[in-house]
Amino acid sequence: MAAPGDDAPVPEHPAVPAPTAAGPLDDWLRDRRQRREEAGLRRRLRTLPGACVDLASNDYLGLSRDPRVVAAAREALDAHGTGSRASRLVTGTLGIHEVLERELCELTGQPAALAFSSGYAANTGVLTALGDADTLIVSDAHAHASLVDGARLSRSPVRIARHSDVAHVGRLLAKRSEERAAVVVESVYSVWGDHAPLVELAAVCRTENALLLVDEAHGIGVAGRGRGLVHEVGLAGAPHVAVTMTLSKALGAQGGAVLGSEALREHLVNTARPFIFDTALAPTSAAAATEAAQIIRTTPELTDRLHERARFVAETLDIAQARAAVQSVPVATPEAAVRAAEQLRARGIAVGCFRPPSVPDGISRLRITAPGNMELQELSDALTRIREVLAGLPGPELPAR
Ligand SMILES: Cc1ncc(COP(=O)(O)O)c(C=O)c1O
């Protein structure tokens, strides 16, 4: 039934004022863009042409298109719909989240897991939940932006340790005045592809009564025949070691997780704001990641093939092989890196670009990943074209590591 007055004429929206001369904000934005342009650091969003050979993705094992993973996502879509509809603590917890968490425990050998809607949220979630004014965070100099942001948001005192320098970490922990401490590292670093000295770090953390928090974003599906570097070095389940991971790289899905003790999980459920105030991971992502984790656990040969391809890339391009999915070719300047990537795109090959501020040493690089399921002939053809483009590029002066 119409409410009284429904027939009355509806007033027009007020006219939108015509744009006037640019104000101070526009001037500032233009100035910032110009500076980025001049430094060769302007980034643009673009879609990948369908015909491109994709050597830029994080889908290290090709699982995002694996028929079993796609079927699992489709089944979850039919069963649960497109979204989780609520946060986990309201009505968003679905059986599929619990199945995912159990499977991630199986894969990594950890006692408990909690899924987040991204790896970024997992890192900011665990650090803000653990940090406070009486908890020192010692963060490796090469730690990912999500760990840096988590440390900043935690309101903890933060010290930066020299990259993979265990003695430096030990000194920072030993002279602290805070009661608690957490040391934050990645297992496999994304730019250099080097492995953190986890055994030594864990020993220092045990002596100094600190937690070692390891981001396995680039370790799961890659190190330890897929089960991660923490598992490989025998630290899975150690009470003073916790792990974070993303579901969006080797698992080919979307989301993240924190793994560790049951007590840590309980604490996160109650205090991690990116968990509490966030809609639960979409059912399709949870189902896809569960299937992918199971495939990785039961098919270690998949990871072996990734390393074979990585070796082929390194040998063909004459670069030192990183013990990681990502291989990278140093280039003299950010502009040269962007130009090379553009030339390759024009030849039907997508490669990534590492540029400041994403590179810890300021050296720009072409970033190349060859998924474990890529046909060798296709990879070989692409590498031939990459060599042609690289031949015309200046190389950088590389500092000693
Ligand atoms: C080391 C590391 N940690 C965390 C993340 C964030 O993961 P996600 O993309 O799932 O948010 C990334 C993604 O690039 C990463 O490289």
Walk me through what this model shows.
Its cofactor is pyridoxal 5'-phosphate. Keywords: Biotin biosynthesis, Pyridoxal phosphate, Transferase. With 401 residues, this protein is an alpha/beta fold. It is built from 15 helices and eleven strands. 42% of the residues lie in helices and 14% in strands. Strand 3, helix 6 and strand 4 form a beta-alpha-beta unit. It is globular and about 50 Å long. The structure holds pyridoxal-5'-phosphate.
Distance between the termini: 77 Å
> Low-confidence spans: pLDDT under 50, at least 5 residues?
none
Domains counted in the coordinates: how many? 2
What characterizes the major β-sheet? 7 strands, mixed
Catalytic activity: 6-carboxyhexanoyl-[ACP] + L-alanine + H(+) = (8S)-8-amino-7-oxononanoate + holo-[ACP] + CO2
Keywords: Biotin biosynthesis, Pyridoxal phosphate, Transferase
Enzyme class: transferase
Cofactor: pyridoxal 5'-phosphate
